[in-house]
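Archive entry. Fields below.
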Amino acid sequence: MSIDRTVRHVKAIITGTKYLFSGPRMTIMYPEDIEELPEGYRGMIEYDWNSCIKCSLCAMICPADAIKMYVSKEESEKEKKIVKRPGINYARCIFCGFCVDICPTNSLTFSKVHDMAYYTYEEHFYPPDKFAEGIKHVHKGRRVRVILDEKRGIKYEPVD
Amino acid sequence: MQVQEILNILFEPYIFIPLVFPGLIAAFIVLLIIIWLERKIAAKVQLRYGPLYIIKPLGGVIQTVADLIRYLFQEPIIPKDVDKLAFLLTPVFLFGLAYLPVVVIPIGPSYYAFRSDLSLLIALALTTLAPIFTVLMGWASNNKFSLIGSVREGYLVISYEIPIFLSALSMAILYGTLDLVEIAEAQRGIWGIFLNPVAAVNMLVLMYMSTSKFPFEIPEAESEIVAGPYTEYGGILYGLVMGASYVKLYVLSLVYSILFLGGWNPLPQSMIGNPFISGSVLFIKSFILVAFGAFLRAVYPRFRIDQAIGLGWRISLPLSLISIFISLLLVMGGVRFVY
Amino acid sequence: MEAEERELELLIGPQHPASGHMRLIAKIDGDVVTELRPDIGYVHRSVEKIAETKKFLQIIPLVERPSLPDTTANNLAYVMALEKLLGIEPPPRARYLRTLLAEITRIHSHLYGLGIHGVMIGSSTAYMWCFGDREPFLQLAQELTGARLTYSYIIPGGVRRDMPKGFADKVEKVLRYMEGRMKDYFDIYFNNPVTRARLEGVGVLKREDAIRLGAVGPNLRASNVPYDVRKAEPYAAYPDVEFDVITEKAGDSFARVMVRVREIGESIKIIRQVLKRIPDGPILHENYEKLIPPKLKEQYKSTGIVKFPSLFANLKAPEGEAIARVEGGRGEVVFHIISDGKTSPYRLRMVTPSFRNVVLFEHLTKGARVADIPAIYGSLDYFPPEADR
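PREDICTED_STRUCTURE:
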């Protein structure tokens, strides 16, 4: 065993000991701490009933066929022609954001929710009226902000 | 008076040492704590938390108890084509034989279960029984991965047993006796590690090699042979085999502390009669060695089998012969020990 | 004993801690591997056929997803081929932003490969550190594009979003953090004598064999062949930045690991140059910008987030063929689109670097030991879903 190899063994053990006593931790304690997501994060979609002009561009561009147009019965009867509004299936949505980017009236917007859970498969389908209600999801944790740091990489600071 | 009599019997050395300390119950507690400690140490080095959620203020220390309860209640699946008797009995034997050498370990100059002129030899010889059952486990499992793992274990045993014996016996040459009590008493002035450091370092590395600690975790190399001989085991059988290697390390480190780290020395004369204090000093020393073995998981990758065997034959064997030579030189130079 | 009885046939199959989504059929004689055949196709999902039924813009998320974690390379190669068909070139600022995202992706893709390799040879510290250090880069990408890994950021004509305010400072902090960590990586993992003993001299790929078998990416460059698509056929902003092509002479697993580590350093250099030299200007081609209605165009100019023109929902490419090549983290990505004037391509051919590196499995493991199989596998940075598509 040469001297060089022994020195490298010792260096490895010393580095390990250094991190053992003063190592930072990069874990975020989800779900007690919730990360504060930046503006423009691509989460679940919110739909504004009134500004939608029913152009169906969102359904045409969706890559995963998650947005489909549903016939809106009352409006069709009122206007004497077929009126369709978008509904979304979150089991297929891939959160790419093409629908938000193509909507000409900004009726579709991003929310910051990405971790919703459902009990049955049918709950994934949001017909237009449920789609317009918005995302009802309450995070019961403490909000923390992610700070990028030169020494530690990632630090978490509570937002208050 | 019944309770008093029972306590008197319990504290007799030939019951206390194998059963309570450093025997079965102490080995069990060490096992629970060291598995948790290994995960926490590895987590701290790797920038994360490790087990945390069970009793959060204590840092998740009850995690191992929760794991043990889960293993007890999990159904051990016995595949159809295994050799049933060998499959079911080898983990029990492995765990039992792993801590058998503890009967000859003294925890005080006058508190020992079994004293003999050859107790060092008995302790070392009993540790060589366990690997037979590892090899048998691999054969009984009827699985190609287990076969490869047990063959690796067989090769490793051959390459570490001779140097371990030679290093330990070199200290016996130095002290002039094979009796563990006298060896511990002889280090009242100076510890064995300063007299013969070559043997100390050599035996430390070989101790980790014999109990599958990183970088020698070869028979159970996860990324190559799933879990080696332990692949087909589930439930409490898996808990037993996983614990057996830690228990073997614990027993070997007790022997190491007596040989090289002075046993229960240095203690002032007044305290040396009390077995609890001398036993605690011995226990702390051996626990530090076990914890160091757990710490190495976070630093090293794993050797290849031919590299580990090469280390055993090409480096450890010559070093152990050198340590015998050093001991002979010291004895001929006039070093004597008084008991 | 006859040779048939001595030889074990080991199926390192999909249900194995270190096999990934593929099966390796190994014939072992004692501890020596006599033959190793990879059995690929476990996660084949016919991406190329699905692409014939989707519109051009819908294919962007489709082709990104096989190649986790190096998604930007596939995205960029596909859009470059599409732009050749459409006959447009992106504006300069969009080219620089594409390079920025490609280099950030390259860094965290290399860290992924190094981490998986570490846990395959037993060092869980390397695994946790590499994956922990990917996190700042994923946070940067999340600020820029809105998603952590599957960005879908590059569209025909430019990119989807502009850099937010204060982004350059955050990038600089993360780059300095990565440079500061390299010393600890070397002390505990790359210079560790056990790592060196496991990786040096294992799976040597000679220069002639690398060229003859068609290896790509760092595997090729570790055998002393200085070939990089960013220098051979420059694209995006690579003509304007200076960087070296990293090669190593030894050709063994350790050389491949070292090429990746040093390429992280080169990517850091490229990102710094891109941030310094990035020009101002639009991020979408003018042909598409003028199709956006005026009110939305004001919103796009003030927020920096592109609103797609409604043409994108029914984009038709003229008839013809186009090929584009991009240097991804694992090697060269080639996309070939044949269009017949409709909204979906007639044929999409996608050649991924892992698919071209599969042949190295059989070649490198002849005569190696059983414990060398994970060492070689990890050093090739082979990603089964990318090879199977």
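CURATOR_NOTE: Residues 22 and 319 of chain C are 38 Å apart (CA to CA).
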